[in-house]
Design goal:
2 domains, Histidine-containing Protein, Chain: A, 3-stranded mixed sheet, alpha/beta
Length: 185
């Protein structure tokens, strides 16, 4: 696995892959940058701070990119306060000089809220996928924007990825489903 200082990291992907051999070792073979910081340490701290946000949940998707001292925040959230909280916690990390907060706040919609709940039940209530609901931040994130659904995160098998896609497509009121789930290595 090649290391680069400019990497896009989905928080949910990083959370599950942290236990994978090689992934948690990221940045350890790099020389520290001036000022004693390394991109690997900054990457780990950004991931930790974002996962620890109190209102970060299954209907939000946070991702980031680290380029030297600049952190670009990406993704979609249902609450405007989560966007600002993410920017504020990342700004306080030693070695972060600039935060470019490009997180999109999803529009308020009662139809989308109903779809989110129906999708949650369809995916996490299904035998086989219900084991994913037991984690503090479930690994399958459900993003709904005007009836268009995107599934983000990590699952254990290709079968789980396919099953989540099938279950999401069965929910009424859903116009399309984009399945961006990654399978653990």
């Amino acid at each position: 696995m090649k290391h680069s200082s400019l990497c896009l990291r989905a928080v949910t992907v990083a959370a599950l892959f942290a236990a994978t051999p090689g992934f948690s070792q990221e940045g350890k073979d790099r020389a520290p940058q001036p000022g004693g910081r390394s991109d690997g340490r900054v990457v780990r701290e950004v991931r930790h701070e974002l996962v620890m946000l109190p209102y970060y949940g299954v209907f939000d998707n946070l991702a980031y990119r680290v380029d030297g001292g600049t952190v670009t925040l990406l993704g979609q959230v249902t609450r405007p306060t989560l966007k600002s909280d993410a920017g504020n916690v990342v700004k306080r990390i030693e070695g972060v000089d600039k935060v470019d907060n490009q997180i999109v706040v999803l529009p308020l919609s009662s139809m989308d809220d109903q779809s989110r709940l129906a999708l949650y039940r369809a995916i996490y209530g299904h035998p086989g996928l219900d084991r994913y609901a037991l984690q503090a931040v479930p690994p399958i994130h459900i993003i709904v924007d005007h009836g268009k659904v995107t599934l983000e995160g990590v699952v254990a098998t290709q079968g789980d990825k396919d099953l989540a896609n099938i279950r999401a497509n069965e929910v009424s009121g859903v116009f399309s489903v984009v399945n961006n789930l990654h399978v653990e290595k």
